Input
Amino acid sequence: MWKYEIGLNLQCSLVVGDLDDDGNLEIVIGNFYNGMYAFNGEDGSILWEYKVRISGVSCTPALGDINNDGILDVIIVNNAEFLCALNGKNESILWNTTKITYHCGSSPALVDVDNDNRLEIIVGLEA
Ligand SMILES: [Ca+2]
Ligand SMILES: [Ca+2]
Ligand SMILES: [Ca+2]
Output
């Protein structure tokens, strides 16, 4: 159907979700050097591209509506150990944490652990 040469050093898996609420799935994937891409699944065109500050992405991103606005958000851990939340529709930054002290080699998980209908973000850190 289509293909896109994303560059060297893909270390994470892709995730799929309807980021812009048009009924078609998008594909989200991170590049070790550059950052994140969201592709329109129906034709492979780029919905958005987000340059991660300092370094790229080696962990699979997580998709979920963390601010309950009806739009899927993209949660990223980048290689400089920043946790970042993007609006899935237009890659605007919802928030960006300060540096996580330890290396994070896993993907974030989104779960409502306290049953308040708001998702929590769980990341594993390497001590
Ligand atoms: Ca879509
Ligand atoms: Ca949202
Ligand atoms: Ca919660």
